[in-house]
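Ligand: iron/sulfur cluster. Inputs:
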Amino acid sequence: MLLSHYRMEFVRPPNPSAQHLRCFAYLDEDISAALPFLNTVVKGFRFSRQPPSLTLKLPGKLVTLTAREIAINMVQDQVEAENLLRWLKDKINEAWAKREAIEPTFEAAAAPRVLDILKLLPQTNCRACGQPTCMVFAVSLSQGEQSLDACGALDQEKQEKLRGYLKDFQIQA
Ligand code: SF4
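Predicted complex:
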């Protein structure tokens, strides 16, 4: 087993109305050598070489793994963070244990194009989604930080097209 223990810390964002927490897990072991193998077995990660890091965009969350730290930008509570960290720990250890049979990947996964997303949005900048413009909403979608349901002005056909497009990049919206 590569990763055995970590210490969790929660930080409330400076915005007093924020309902979520940021979570940091400080790792007892250095996992940098496992990151290219994890990049192969879990789809949707983006890998950076210097320093070695992986980022994973989940709906409403950004998870970043570096040598000695895992950071999650938004969690509702401790239980959600514990579940996510347990899953990541299992994946890291599994990828490391099977590394002889896994081709490491040092490339970043392709990312969706913001303009391709924007073209399918209503482009009225009505703000009903909570974002100041459709462009900002498109950026949030491209980063897996927002659900398509937040745009009530989007018709069914375009919603399905966008879901399909984002799914090609392992983004569930
Ligand atoms: S709700 Fe839809 S149309 Fe309105 S600003 Fe947001 S993305 Fe644009």
